[in-house]
UniProtKB/TrEMBL annotation, chains A, B:
Matches recorded under Gene3D superfamilies: Putative cyclase
EC number(s) from the headed UniProt entry: 3.5.-.-
Keywords: Hydrolase
Domain of life: Bacteria
Source organism: Streptosporangium vulgare
InterPro entries given in the database record: KFase/CYL, KFase_sf
Lineage: Bacteria, Bacillati, Actinomycetota, Actinomycetes, Streptosporangiales
One Gene Ontology term of the molecular function aspect: hydrolase activity
Protein's name in the database: Cyclase family protein
Entry annotated with the keyword Hydrolase: yes
């Protein structure tokens, strides 16, 4: 049978499961909060145009106000100054939007240390057990943080010293960007970088190194616990916003049963 | 080889091509214009938050103002009063978002008659030649209208009697909704209905019948001329807007070479 008929047939008969890795979008969707004097994004908002009423007797529809980097979203290279000559979100080649994914699960470590950082050694140990990171694919970094996403305060986990959420060390971010063949990094947290990464050198190293290397970010993923360690395929197609730095998007995973 | 490894391998080696069916999003994106007293959607707009400047020295990002039904977008059942107890855009089952698609090409007819309407007989003749419409899949209706999408005036094609763009007859819309197994209808025009459909009985029959039957709409598609008549697979994953009536989305087609 042809590859595509096989795909459609397998989705239909349950041989392939489609798993939604996306958080729903609503006014409750947690958003990043940067300190003064930096600009911040607006909360997600629907503005009703009509709802089977005078403004439209047979139809219901809304306008949307959101940020490019809100909810489950895609970071394109131009999001960061290191990638400013790179692709905007509409320029990412479409054949990169369907790619293999692997899951690195450090949820146990992040549960006891909200400032937990992924190190090169964790990734190398994972590769020892599971083989190389996927060329042109996603490294999905599980921290268990998706369980907090219903509660903006616990999700951002900020105190007087700033936000405390797990991320990636400076060395590991540089290594993932420059020494591996991944297309990008996917995380469960509000952004790809740790909550404390504003104070790293460089600040926000995942953004700085990965986007600077033409790689991508995917954030606020959920259901990573339902994926196999290797073998999933992730569909991550951002909106083609002309000149855009990123986009909210639907992320789906295909998993063979 | 496993289905998913086969898929990834084929995308990599060109055996499967990924074709973008999506129009780019910008302030030039054409939008629907309904007459008074109906509410209308806003033009797509980016609002810059920072661009490697005081407001964010290392980063560039924007807020977005758009409509749910802007550019290439997905119509969910609740968009129409006939589907008001049906799925909102976040409730569409994810395994319906990757589905087979067929192309019905009436571009020659629409080129000489901007009010051209698809009739049941056209679809039956197509089925005679190509087999049944795909169960749970998309009927993609090619009219050549995507060639006009760069020019809002030619795309909407309105005069003193209103907009004149191709669509579907009342009888055919009812038949597609009630007598076929398709998941939905995809078009190249600003909406699934003809420009003149405000004056049909019922008004906007594609919206009324298809959404009322729990089916979906996809609009402002492009590159349908690059798809085979049968055999493509379409990935059409809307944003999971809680309670939303529809969503701009990225639509990708997979085509075997
Ligand atoms: N860390 C940041 C700093 C500035 C702007 C955005 C971010 C993100 O995390 C993002 O991409 O969501
Ligand atoms: N025909 C309409 C009437 C009212 C509201 C929206 C529409 C659309 O076409 C749409 O879904 O884009």
């Amino acid at each position: 049978m042809s590859v595509l008929r096989n795909l459609v047939e397998s989705i239909r008969n349950g041989g392939i499961e489609v798993i939604d890795l996306t958080a729903p979008l609503s006014s409750e969707t947690p958003i990043l909060r940067l300190p003064e004097p930096f600009g911040n994004t607006v909360p997600f908002e629907l503005r009703e145009i009509s709802r089977y009423d005078d403004r439209g007797p047979a139809w219901y529809w809304n306008d949307i106000v959101t940020g490019e980097h809100t909810g489950t979203h895609f970071d394109a290279p131009v999001h960061w100054v290191t990638g400013k000559d790179g692709e905007d979100v509409s320029q990412v080649p479409v054949d990169r939007l369907i790619a293999p994914a692997v899951v690195l699960d450090l949820a146990a470590e992040a549960a006891v240390d909200p400032d937990f950082l992924l190190e090169i050694a964790h990734v190398k140990a994972w590769e020892e057990a599971n083989g190389p990171l996927p060329e042109g694919g996603w490294l999905l970094y599980r921290t268990g943080w998706d369980a907090r996403s219903h509660d903006q305060e616990r999700f951002l986990n900020a105190n007087e010293t700033g936000p405390h959420t797990p991320g990636v060390s400076v060395e590991c971010a540089r290594w993932l960007a420059e020494e591996t063949a991944i297309a990008g990094l996917g995380v469960e947290t509000v952004g790809t970088d740790a909550g404390a990464a504003h104070g790293f050198d460089p600040a926000f190293p995942c953004h700085s190194f990965l986007l600077g290397a033409g790689k991508y970010g995917l954030t606020q993923l959920r259901n990573l616990d339902r994926l196999p360690v290797t073998g999933a395929v992730v569909v991550a197609p951002p909106l083609p916003i002309a000149g855009g730095s990123g986009s909210p998007l639907r992320v789906l995973a295909l998993v063979e049963r």
